[in-house]
Amino acid sequence: MTTILITGTNRGIGLEMAKQALANGWTVYGSARTVVSDPEAHICDHPKFHNLVFDVTDHEAVRAAAASVSEPIDILINNAGSIGPERQSTLDMNFDGFAQTFAINTLAPLAVSQAFLPHLKRSSNPRILTVSSWMGSLSHAKSDRIAYRASKAAVNKVMQGLATDLEPMGVAVAMLHPGWVRTDMGGPGADIDVATSAGGILKIAEGLTLEGTGQFYNWDGSSLDL
Predict the structure, then answer these.
(1) Whole-angstrom Cα distance, residue 25 to residue 46?
(2) Does the predicted TM-score (pTM) go above 0.85?
């Protein structure tokens, strides 16, 4: 049966992916900066759910968490992310906030992938998926929330490079646009609900092979331009 690690499972899409993966009978490792708790779904009481407490920007803590896990991991989903600082215009930038956005959205997915790579290599079908955003596509010429956009464009390139390096090892890597989702980040006027987005991402994760490595997918499985 599938074992999956999802970062950022404290709320939103990450929490919903954890719920759906458990419903599929999968073993779920869920990470957050504090112990994941969900009073409604009680996922922490589920025998196949395992809490991993670490901040994705704390690389030492990430490595320690990886060392605490003994079993192979089939799927890693880098979901934890940040929308960035309030001031993130090219004409008025919070540079400390810009750097923190990169630390969370760009550097952390690579650090987590590196730390858990030994676990993935022990799987017969290892896959790494990173939740990015179409807002980071270079074909989408907008300037609002530029720190967020730049961090997602950068993580797409980093993951494309990782896909190239891991393909000979049999590890598939892909980037995902979760859609415009009704979460705290997306707001109540967004296009789709959390369950639809999470279900779409897990479906892509299930079906990802080396033929699709290095690609950028929409939540519904269609291809997007980097």
Answers:
(1) 11
(2) yes
Q: Residue 48: what residue type? A: K
- Dihedral (Cα; 38, 20, 80, 168), 10-degree rounding: 150
Q: What is the largest CA-CA distance in the chain?
A: 51
Measured CA to CA in angstroms, residue 64 lies from 8, 54, 78, 194 at distances of 17, 9, 17, 31
User: Which residues belong to the active site?
Assistant: 148, 152
Question: Hey, what domains does the chain have and what are their CATH numbers?
Answer: 3-218 (3.40.50.720)
pLDDT in tens, 198-219: 999 999 999 999 999 999 999 9
Spatial separation of the C-alpha atoms in residues 47 and 50, rounded to whole Å: 8
Tokens of 224: 């997007």
Check the CA dihedral 60-61-66-67 and report its sign: positive
